Amino acid sequence: MTGIFSRQSISYGKSDPVETPFMKASEVWDRRLGSARVQAANWRLMAFLLFFLSLGLAIGFYRLAGQNHIVPYVVEVGEQGEVRNISPALESYHPDDAVIAWHLSHFIEKLRSLPSDPVVLRENWLSAYDMVSDSGALYLSNYAREHDPFKALGIKTVSVEVTSIVRASRNSFQIKWQEKLFRNGDFERTDRYTAILGVILAAPDNEEMLRKNPLGIYVHEINWNRDYVPASDQGDGNAFSDVKNNPVSGSGDKGDK
Question: Looking at the record, which segments are called Disordered (predicted)?
């Protein structure tokens, strides 16, 4: 009897859940939000990469801007103006006696000549200051204070001709030159001078020094005298003034400049 009234068990298999509109909307939202997050992460990564790249470029440009890329060249010419040698003036460059002689000749001409134009005279002295060390500049300042060249403007003119330059020692040269003095346009006399100039070599370490004195040849000791003074000219021993020239010598080293 029991078997008659017993219920048979019903087995239900697994079925897929019903996909409701809410579930569809949730999936779409998740996909959109996930895609936005992935894109944001990619953009952040790109931004960091660009930042470090820009930083590296900025550092590189800064270092390049601080370096000196100007390379001066030394051109040696002969007596007729022909080019004998062209070479870069690197730190290891040591000018020979001919180059130093030209430099010293240019220095004497700038310093001892007396033009009629005050602008030219000022430029000559500024150029001479670019060729001396600190001790040499001190000598020039003392000399200009005692023998102001601007006082003779309009009255005298002096032309300088260097006649001889020979090496006197390891670091000094003997220079001979003659000065033709004109007073009010009329030739008056010719004076002859001899000087001993001490020279040091110092490679330029900045753009200003490279522009003013690319070879690094500096006069640091100056001592000159007139070779012969006629009796009638004893009271006018200097073409710039009536004050007697008292040579002053200075000394220095490569640290002067």
Answer: 235-257
